[in-house]
Design goal:
4 helices; 4-stranded antiparallel beta sheet; 6-stranded antiparallel beta sheet; mainly beta; 556 residues; single chain
């Protein structure tokens, strides 16, 4: 168990125990084991000095009793976690926040990994170059000794924020300024977010015990020979190591064990060019022109790509109202960690969820070409790409056809970029209340519901008087055949908030709340249902269709 310290080095400096007495290492004299002994206290005796080993045993007994109480009522798993997908910085990542894990009776806040705030980024390897790959995200935990700064021993001197080795460090204050030396050392409960590619989830549904691919790290910076196996007593918990001194050395830990919890199974598209027949799983990189039907990128992980495989832990079923007073106190405390209430909330939200989404139906019928006015940082809009004062573009916006004449002056300008990284801007169309007409705007984001035309990337250090160094990406939705038919139909993606559904076997009821023309909404169709989201398509010509959706899960 985690409370049994197997390898603890301490200060190896030789000092006299007393004047002219024997010289011994000033580290820990011996390691005492609290497990299996049912000790409740360490009793001091008059006339006899307390020993370092007994003071350490006192802490271990308390830690052991506390962990045993938590183990009795709370299995290992995730108490709470918020998940964010569609992350573009950094690419190939999932963001988690408000995450608390229970690991073999120990609680850990998973904060700050690969970030400076309290959220954490799980960063995956690059996408494959062919086919589809399934990646694993998981987290491992271990106990490791912390030495003071400048220690001659090989122990770690880092004090990691929240215990996360990817979360940055805090000041090492182990050396006492008054004594001018170290007097104690520390054990830190550490954790690391990890990913492993190409996992056989068919044979190993949780992935962590795919021993050919997943190796324990512990305090190392890479794989060891130790692999994870599922705990018999705690099915969500995976354990590597055997509690021996050899395991402590190999895993760089104090107890000889490294623990792990599974997080996500993630499907990865490939980097090769999309082809509907030969490579339907290909996708471009974020920032490149995207002509795939899904409009997804190989290096942006979206909600439909991930499947949670973590265990949402809660109070064990064997606790009942007739339990003794101590168990009642523990139950009240753990319910604060969203134990029983979390399970009830989960049931309710999976049974019936509701929200709203807006389907925007805006497109270019003809023209809408954005390009640079030669020799300037100004933009022009034209029907053909070449300015012609007699020409005009035609667009469908806000439920009506809008005409925008070719224009070179007072359109918009793209700012210079003095920074060390590229900057992205978007040209879009919106109604200008001051000029009382539709015109082109430029900004770093496109406001919701506006007609996007082009994405413009300004390279680092570009401060020239022209836009020659900039790259223009055409992102128009073009319906040249309108008003006869659409080549694409407007749709909205709904990411299910809160708790995802158990599977895709649920019903969706739709109610139209508003639209630019209520008589031209057409039929609303639900498709591409998954456990974490679905799409809603409109067959009509109305714009800005606000739809209230209601999920009904008959099996929940």
């Amino acid at each position: 168990m985690a409370e049994k310290i197997v390898k603890y080095q301490g200060d190896t400096t030789l000092r006299e125990l007393w004047a002219n007495g024997p010289q011994v290492s000033s580290g820990v004299s011996r390691l005492l084991d609290p497990t299996g002994r049912n000790f409740s206290a360490v009793m001091w005796q008059q006339g006899k000095p307390p020993l370092d080993s007994e003071l350490n045993l006192l802490q271990q007994i308390q830690n052991h009793l506390r962990a045993e109480m938590v183990r009795a009522i709370l299995p290992s798993g995730i108490l709470q976690m918020d998940v964010q997908t569609d992350i573009t910085s950094p690419l190939n990542s999932i963001r988690i926040s408000n995450t608390i894990a229970c690991v073999n009776g120990w609680l850990a806040r998973i904060n700050g990994a690969n970030r400076t705030d309290d959220a954490s980024d799980i960063i995956f390897p690059e996408a494959p170059y062919s086919g589809v790959r399934y990646d694993l995200a998981f987290i491992e935990f271990w106990f490791e000794e912390v030495a003071p700064s400048g220690s001659p021993e090989t122990d770690s001197e880092a004090v990691y924020r929240y215990g996360g080795v990817q979360s940055g460090t805090l000041a090492n204050d182990l050396q006492d300024p008054t004594a001018g030396d170290e007097t104690t050392r520390r054990l830190q409960f550490r954790w690391r977010l990890r990913t492993v590619s190409d996992i056989d989830f068919t044979t190993y549904p949780k992935g962590v015990n795919h021993t050919a691919r997943v190796k324990a790290w512990g305090g190392n910076a890479g794989d060891t020979n130790y692999v994870f196996s599922s705990s018999v007593a705690d099915t969500a918990l995976f354990v590597a190591g055997d509690g021996s001194a050899a395991a402590c050395d190999a895993l760089k830990c104090a107890t000889g064990y490294v623990y792990a919890l599974a997080f996500f199974k993630v499907m990865r598209r490939n980097q090769a060019a999309y082809d509907a027949i030969t490579n339907p799983d290909g996708a471009p990189g974020y920032g490149a022109t995207n002509t795939t039907p899904s409009q997804l990128y190989h290096n942006v992980i979206v909600a439909q790509d991930i499947k949670p495989i973590f265990y949402q832990t809660g109070i064990r079923d064997r606790l009942h109202p007739e339990m003794d007073s101590m168990a009642a106190v523990l139950l009240e405390a753990m319910s604060g960690l969203r134990g029983i209430n979390l399970e009830l909330e989960k049931w309710k939200k999976q049974r019936l969820q509701q929200g709203s989404v807006v389907i925007y139906n805006k497109f270019v019928i003809d023209g809408g070409v954005i390009s640079a006015v030669p020799g300037t940082r100004n933009l022009q809009i034209s029907r053909t790409g070449t300015f012609n004062a007699a020409a005009a573009s035609k667009m469908y916006i806000d439920g009506k056809i809008v005409v925008i004449p070719d224009e070179q002056t007072s359109v918009a300008a793209v700012p210079p970029n003095a920074g060390a990284t590229s900057q992205t801007y978007y040209a879009y169309v919106d109604y200008d209340n001051t000029q009382q007409r539709y015109r082109v705007f430029v900004d770093q984001t496109v406001p919701e519901g506006k007609l996007k035309l082009y994405r413009i990337v300004v390279p680092a250090g570009d401060q020239t008087a022209s836009l020659d160094a900039c790259t223009f990406y055409n992102e128009r939705r073009i319906e040249a055949a309108y008003t006869c038919f659409y080549t694409t139909q407007p749709f909205a993606l709904v990411n299910i908030p809160g708790f995802w559904m158990p599977d895709a076997n649920y019903d969706v009821q739709l109610t139209v709340e508003d639209a630019s023309d209520m008589g031209r909404v057409g039929e609303l169709i639900v498709y591409d249902k998954a456990y974490n989201g679905f799409k809603v398509r409109s067959t009509g010509a109305a714009d800005a269709i606000r739809v209230r959706w209601t999920l009904i899960n008959p099996n929940a």
